[in-house]
User: Which sequence fits this backbone?
């Protein structure tokens, strides 16, 4: 089924660019770098195949994204800005940060249909990353999807990035705020091991030195996650 | 109607005209058919129900807008938003959930949800063409 067909299933909720956009007016135009995305489209397909999808966004709240996922796709959006948490908890060591993540999520087990993890894991030390992955696996519903971005090259950037959905094939990358640098470059096998309760559905290596990975939660692994 | 920044209200605030709050309110605010503006000095710890809600200050509590919720630059909301239209500016703070689907179809029942005495009364459609029934008092009611 094409993208038009997917959106058609939503009963015409998607608005054209000519129609009034309820969110955009208060979001000032931002430069941001236009970057292609391959995995977003598949992530959206997962969401739109489910009734009343619930989306967990681990990034900062972004008006156009709220419009895109909330109005056009009919998702209920849970905004949990973990980048802001990281900034606030910058003094915490790996173990303390892991403890923080253990208590951070109030969502019930298997209650979320999609998770936008963005590039958060790149900024986490090992134990905290492992704990976060376990918590995300816990809250993700069976057949739900998690979208994560992982750097494939070391970077000296000291800013986080806002990922603004322009359309299903394009994201605008908008740097913001001085924060901590990326902890490390994870190898593919490390990423897969990190999210061991999930299955890699699609993986794309982009020219922007970013690996996009779409994870799915298979039924046969759903009972094996404890949310460590 | 304007509530100044030195005013502190604890309790329930109902009204049938547009309202701007620059002071502190704790409890519940309900302006079913009107616009509620939380000014830049406004500090709200309350469940908020209005036709349209504009936030320039700080709200801790759930916000329901039968038409629209608009969090402006430097505005802050910690709570869940239910509204068919949500605008969140670049410099705004928000933590909670956004439900735009329910806002378009069932926001009005949520407004009435606490009126337990009339559970069988059908809720009015949120954006119906028919004129809404005005609050007969026509005044803000502040209860302790």
Assistant:
């Amino acid at each position: 089924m094409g993208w038009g067909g997917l959106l058609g299933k939503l009963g015409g909720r998607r608005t054209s660019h000519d129609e009034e956009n309820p969110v955009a007016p208060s979001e000032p135009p931002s430069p941001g770098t236009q970057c292609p995305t391959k995995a977003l489209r598949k992530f959206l397909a997962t969401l739109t195949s489910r009734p009343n999808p619930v989306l967990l966004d681990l990034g900062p709240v972004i008006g156009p994204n709220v419009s895109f996922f909330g109005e056009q796709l009919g998702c209920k959006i849970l905004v949990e800005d973990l980048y802001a948490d990281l900034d606030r908890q910058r003094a915490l060591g790996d173990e303390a940060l892991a403890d923080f993540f253990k208590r951070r999520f109030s969502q019930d087990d298997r209650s979320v249909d999609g998770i936008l993890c963005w590039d958060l894991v790149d900024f986490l030390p090992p134990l905290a990353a492992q704990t976060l992955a376990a918590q995300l696996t816990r809250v993700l519903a069976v057949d739900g999807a998690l979208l994560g971005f992982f750097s494939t090259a070391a970077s000296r950037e000291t800013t986080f990035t806002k990922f603004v959905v322009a359309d299903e094939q394009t994201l605008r990358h908008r740097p913001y705020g001085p924060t901590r640098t990326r902890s490390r470059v994870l190898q593919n096998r490390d990423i897969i091991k990190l999210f061991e309760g999930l299955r890699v559905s699609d993986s794309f290596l982009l020219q922007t030195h970013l690996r996009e990975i779409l994870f799915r939660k298979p039924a046969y692994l759903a009972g094996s996650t404890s949310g460590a | 109607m304007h509530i100044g920044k030195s005013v502190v209200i604890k309790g329930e605030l109902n009204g049938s005209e547009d309202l701007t709050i620059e002071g502190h309110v704790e409890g519940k605010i309900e302006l079913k058919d009107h616009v509620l503006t939380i000014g830049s000095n406004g500090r709200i710890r309350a469940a908020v129900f209005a036709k349209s809600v504009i936030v320039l200050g700080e709200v801790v509590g759930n916000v329901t807008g039968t038409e629209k919720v608009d969090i402006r630059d430097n505005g802050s909301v910690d709570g869940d938003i239910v509204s068919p239209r949500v605008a969140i500016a670049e410099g705004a703070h928000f933590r909670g959930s956004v439900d735009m689907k329910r806002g378009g179809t069932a926001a009005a029942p949520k407004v009435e949800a606490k009126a337990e005495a009339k559970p069988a009364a059908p809720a009015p459609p949120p954006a119906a063409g028919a004129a809404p029934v005005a609050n007969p008092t026509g005044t803000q009611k502040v209860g302790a």
